[in-house]
Amino acid sequence: MTSPRTIGVILAGGTGSRVGLSIPKQLLKIAGRPVIEHTLAIFQDADVIDEIFIMMHPDHLAAAETIAAKFGKVSRVISGGGTRNDTSFAAVAALGEDADPDTRLLFHDAVRPLLDTRIINDLVAALDDYDAVDVAIPSADTIIEVNPNDEIVDIPDRSRLRRGQTPQAFRLETLRRAYLIARQDPNFLPADDCSVILKYLPEVPIAVVRGADHNMKITEPIDVFIADKLFQIGSTVAPAPTSVDEYRAKLAGKVMVVLGGSYGIGADIVELARGFGAEVRSFSRSQTGTDVSRPEDIEKALADAHAELGRIDYVVLTAGILNRGRLADVPMDEILEGIRVNYFAPVLTARFAHAYLKETRGQLVFFTSSSYTRGRADYSVYSSTKAAVVNLTQALADEWSAEGIQVNVINPERAGTPMRTKAFGKEPAGSLLSSRAVALTTIDVLLSSLTGHVIDVRREEPGHVGMSRSELEATRIAEALEEVGTEAEV
Q: What is the spatial distance between Cα 181 and Cα 235, in angstroms, rounded to a whole number?
């Protein structure tokens, strides 16, 4: 027996009037791509989603069609209605009377681009037991009820209050039935889809799954600024393949160039990518005499790799240097070295990688540091150059989006690398993120549709949105790779 389809319905009917824009807010660019593209990428990468509908404002259908072509799961672009409920009903009607009544629908605001895949998975799982499921988070503020004169008449118990979000999830037949009743009511007032179920099918229980604070809706002008900052501070988790076989299938025939691949995170990326079957060329000062702060060295490294292998799909720059000390006391040659390696090298790498990545619609990945969010004493040059790399990433993601080139930046928590040991000495066991976990996350990012993102990699901390690959997962993958290698030798 086949499972019913699960369809993500992206509600993009807004006009952007409250944000004060001449274009709908779902088409506004944040972190290198239109808001709706960030949202679509989440549903595209969610394994539980089979198909995507885009419900677009009728004046912007052409823009939606262009964007839809980038996402294989998008099957329909449909003109939205005059209200949220009209748009939702149009999606239901588009499925036709013969559709499987158990088809699962997830209605999500296009202008909530920071949705977690975890929420999607929880919703779909809840539909095994319920016909309607909402997403909500506790209210941190006291909620008051007022009369028409703005006088308090009640203060509800906050412990029972939640703030609603999207997606909202339903079985098709239940939502269709609720709307058929609602549309016969002359006093029907527009509301969200769960409200329609609650009012017109009160016997149907509506489950609630936990949302997330960062799953915000871009509605007011300040929301644009906040969303941009949330992208910048690294709240993204890259979707990850689940087996060595899946990695090998996705990396088959791909060419990766790693600049700074002789030790630490770079060496682990080289080892893992080769184990997954990619063609990898590693360049560094100790391996190949490549100085990433010299334009001619980066240009030659990329040209040599392309001449040998005929293409370059991924370029990863892991080289970095951390010189500590008060700016007034640090020798000038160390200051210049830090700027050249930590910032000039990313600029050079982007400049020379562009032509190759344009050919393959490939991806460029940089590395930053948690110190980029706030300048720190004794790290002034290091933290400021790492902040510059984040801005460079987002600028390039925007510049290169039309050419299909992705640009992302990895932000590891304190990781056990030779660079860190040199700067801080030996630190307590278990206090640092392993370089192998960071390397595996980097490969996850390379295989994703993300662009313009800061991917925040941390040690296992329950509930942390930026938590990515754990040491346990990285070890499991590495052991599986060793088994594959052993079998190949035999």
A: 41
Query: DSSP class of residue 15?
Result: -
Peptide bond into 34 cis (omega under 30): no
Identify the three-state secondary structure at position 424. helix
Q: Which residue has the tokens 């007022």?
A: 146
AA identity, residue 197? I
Which CA distances in Å does 373 have to 167, 364, 386? 30, 21, 9
DSSP for residue 382? H
Residue 54: φ, ψ to 5°: -110, 120
| Strand, helix or coil for residue 339 | helix
- E strand intervals along 211-304: 255-259, 279-283
In angstroms, rounded to a whole number, what is the distance separating the alpha carbons of residues 108 and 175?
15
φ, ψ of residue 300 to 5 degrees: the values are: -70, -40
How wide is the angle at C-alpha 349 spanned by C-alphas 454 and 42, nearest 5°?
Answer: 30
> pLDDT tens, 206-253?
999 999 999 999 988 899 888 887 876 655 566 667 688 889 999 999
Count of H-run helices and E-run strands, the chain = 17, 17
Residues 364-377 have a mean pLDDT of 85
Instruction: Answer for the pair 433, 369: CB distance below 8 angstroms, yes or no.
Output: no
CB 281 within 8 A of CB 256: yes
Task: Give the torsion through C-alpha atoms of 37, 49, 166, 197, to 10 deg.
Answer: 140
CB 420 within 8 A of CB 371: no
Quick one: tokens of 408? 């992302």
% of residues, the chain, pLDDT over 70: 85
Residue 30 is predicted with a pLDDT of 84
The answer to whether 455 and 445 are in contact (CB under 8 A) is yes
